[in-house]
């Protein structure tokens, strides 16, 4: 199921046995979008291998809308979010994401078409998932350029993950959107360690005698600095939750602050609300959207 604006399915169960609901909260002129979803046990208990019911997944989504009404910002579309579960033979695959509105609809349709392929061999699902995500990132960049939106390419942002059998998280991000995992209380930006290193080079101007420092990305030219990466994170007993959030969250708080703020909140929807409200309180000027996935 994907979401844009204040859409929802009125709290009805979907075909996968998920209880989906959508309500609106209006407070002090601020319009919030609240969606809450909890997985139910709908798996075959006869399967011997460890399945995801042994690590239940719950999640909550919060998107702040109509920000221009109370902040003076220009009117813009809200972020696009998705939370979808598919069963591929004996493998459970979840897709979660937060997307800039200019790319959300297109990239989610691409992922749905290419990620949930029932013909995938079970032993190759993780590899195919990584390949599909990389291709999706390249595909959306190409579409932006073809649509004469090259100036928007660097501004486009998203972060999305697939969760495979509640054992592995395959994650990516573009722009200032970010995925952060909390392990035993410690925040870790999933794709951060895959970013190129920064090198500082000093050079002497022989004529003026002045010393200059140049900063560049190792192994990369400036045009490739914002290229998205794909990372795999193992879900173990220390893994508590994952935060997917837009630029408006990370403009006003760092990874550990966000984790500390919501770690004590067991209900993922309440945690998502708390994170968004804190970003508003700190006068964030970016899009404020977050999706919290908890592994209970």
TrEMBL record:
InterPro entries: PP2C, PPM-type-like_dom_sf, PPM-type_phosphatase-like_dom
Spans annotated as Disordered: 1-22
An example Gene Ontology molecular-function term: protein serine/threonine phosphatase activity
Name by which UniProt lists this protein: PPM-type phosphatase domain-containing protein
Gene3D superfamilies named in the record: PPM-type phosphatase domain
Ranges for domain PPM-type phosphatase: 60-295
The organism of origin for this protein: Coptis chinensis
């Amino acid at each position: 199921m994907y979401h844009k604006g204040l859409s929802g399915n009125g709290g009805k169960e979907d075909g996968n046995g998920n209880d989906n609901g959508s309500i609106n909260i209006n407070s002090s002129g601020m319009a919030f979008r609240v969606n809450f979803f909890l997985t139910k046990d709908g798996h075959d208990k006869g399967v011997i291998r460890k399945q995801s019911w042994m690590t239940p997944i719950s999640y909550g989504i919060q998107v702040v809308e109509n920000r221009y009404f109370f902040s003076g910002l220009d009117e813009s579309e809200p972020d696009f979010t998705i939370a979808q579960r598919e069963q591929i033979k004996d493998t459970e695959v979840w897709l979660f994401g937060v997307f800039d509105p200019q790319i959300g609809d297109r990239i989610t349709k691409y992922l749905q078409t290419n990620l949930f392929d029932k013909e995938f061999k079970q032993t190759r699902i993780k590899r195919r998932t990584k390949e599909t995500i990389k291709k999706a990132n390249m595909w959306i960049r190409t579409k932006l350029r073809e649509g004469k939106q090259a100036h928007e390419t660097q501004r486009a942002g998203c972060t999305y993950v697939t969760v495979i059998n509640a054992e592995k998280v395959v994650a990516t991000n573009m722009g200032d959107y970010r995925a952060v995992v909390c392990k035993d209380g410690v925040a870790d930006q999933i794709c951060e360690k895959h970013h190129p290193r920064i090198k500082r080079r000093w050079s002497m101007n022989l004529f003026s005698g002045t010393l200059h420092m140049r900063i560049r990305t190792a192994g990369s030219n400036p045009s490739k600095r914002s290229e998205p990466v794909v990372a795999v994170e193992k879900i173990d007993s220390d893994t508590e939750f994952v935060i997917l959030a837009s630029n408006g969250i990370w403009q006003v708080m760092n990874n550990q602050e966000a984790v500390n703020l919501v770690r004590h909140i067991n209900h993922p929807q309440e945690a998502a609300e708390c994170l968004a409200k804190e970003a508003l309180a700190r006068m964030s000027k970016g899009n404020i959207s977050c999706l919290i996935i908890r592994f209970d």
